[in-house]
Design goal:
GO biological process, one term: transmembrane transport
Shape: globular
Distance between the termini: 20 Å
Order of helices and strands: HHHHHHHHHH
CATH architecture: Alpha/alpha barrel
Number of domains: 1
Protein name: MC family transporter: aspartate/glutamate
Number of strands: 0
CATH class: Mainly Alpha
Membrane topology: Multi-pass membrane protein
Strand content: under 5%
Largest sheet: none
Radius of gyration: 20 Å
Pfam families: Mito_carr (PF00153)
Number of helices: 10
GO molecular function: metal ion binding
CATH topology: Mitochondrial carrier fold
């Protein structure tokens, strides 16, 4: 049976990802480290984005002014508030996402080959693999994302959460288990184009760069080339999915009295959130924080992809199915 290739001349044959314990551990380790490194590197911008999404405080408008305000009012700790919870979430999320992408993309390719034995890895197959991987990873770690969101936006004073465990306990007692999945639906809808496009664009750009530079395989690409491909992929994916991210954050803090932001309406669900946000603040409110996110998402996604690729090359390159 033919192997999955995107270029016959420049890219060597790709085989199915291994399912041995070592191969699984390698993939999960590489994905987890990639997620933790990339998110910590842009943690201050991540917090600023969330504050812009849920707050009407004009002090957070703009990247430079918002960062300056956080530094002035909360210091260095304020810049990284919520990053511990974010890493607790993003490490397993990233590990599962990269692992599932490799196997889902290959599974879709094998499915296509039942109809066409000459089928090769293409943009749509990568898009489907990325979308499926994003849904699985996001759903598996969503309660941690919800807790991280609240830890990120709270300010000093009042009945604040003291940490991840305390937040989880208080939320469960006061709001019920269902509160951990506030905003889950828009997250599912948003993750499909976001993660799908990230993987599809990144891998396709790498293949095209390999051809353009006359290399033998994507493993020969420079780190800079990988960062550029990852940055473009992150920017495109985030732009498409951003309104759903805003909706998710607003639903997560909806009705939470201790939020350190201006009190807003209580939403009954995703559609109600979109309706009230647009009616009361305009369509542009669905893109609050996008400027900060562009500054954050391009290096974040780029770093994640490059760290993952480099670790897989060092640890066990033969289990890779992507360039």
């Amino acid at each position: 049976m033919p192997t999955a290739t995107t270029t016959e001349a420049s890219t060597p044959p790709r085989t199915a990802p291994g399912l041995t314990p070592m191969a699984i551990a390698t993939s999960l380790l590489a994905g987890g480290v990639a997620g933790g490194v990339s998110r910590t590197a842009v943690a201050p911008l991540e917090r600023l984005k969330i504050l812009q999404q849920v707050s009407s405080n004009g002090a957070y408008n703009g990247v430079v002014s918002g960062m300056a305000h956080m530094w002035k009012t909360e210091g260095m700790r304020g810049l990284f508030k919520g990053n511990g919870a974010n890493c607790v979430r993003i490490v397993p999320n990233s590990a599962v996402k990269f692992f599932c992408y490799e196997h889902m993309a290959h599974g879709l390719l094998e499915l296509r080959r039942t109809f066409d034995q000459n089928a090769e890895m293409d943009v749509l197959t990568r898009l489907g693999g990325g979308a499926g991987a994003g849904i699985v990873a996001m759903s598996a770690t969503y309660p941690l994302d919800m807790i991280r969101g609240r830890l990120t936006v709270q300010k000093g004073g009042g009945e604040n959460y003291r940490g991840i465990y305390h937040a989880a306990t208080v939320i469960a007692q006061r709001e019920g288990i269902g509160a951990f999945y506030k905003g889950w639906l828009p997250s599912v809808i948003g993750v499909i184009p976001y993660v799908g496009l990230n993987f599809a664009i990144y891998e396709t750009l790498k293949d095209q760069t390999v051809k353009f530079q006359g290399l033998n395989s994507a493993a020969e690409l420079s780190v800079l080339s990988g960062l550029v491909c990852g940055g473009i992929a992150g920017a495109v994916g985030q732009t498409v999915a951003y309104p759903f991210d805003v909706c998710r954050r607003r639903l997560q803090v909806s009705g939470w009295a201790q939020a350190g932001v201006a009190k807003g309406p209580v939403y009954t669900g995703m559609l109600d959130c979109f309706r009230k946000t647009v009616a009361e603040e305009g369509v542009t409110a669905l893109f609050h924080g996008l400027s900060a996110n562009y500054v954050k998402i391009m290096p974040s996604i780029a770093i994640a992809f490059v760290v993952y690729d480099q670790l897989k090359i060092i640890l066990k390159p033969e289990v890779k199915i992507t360039g």
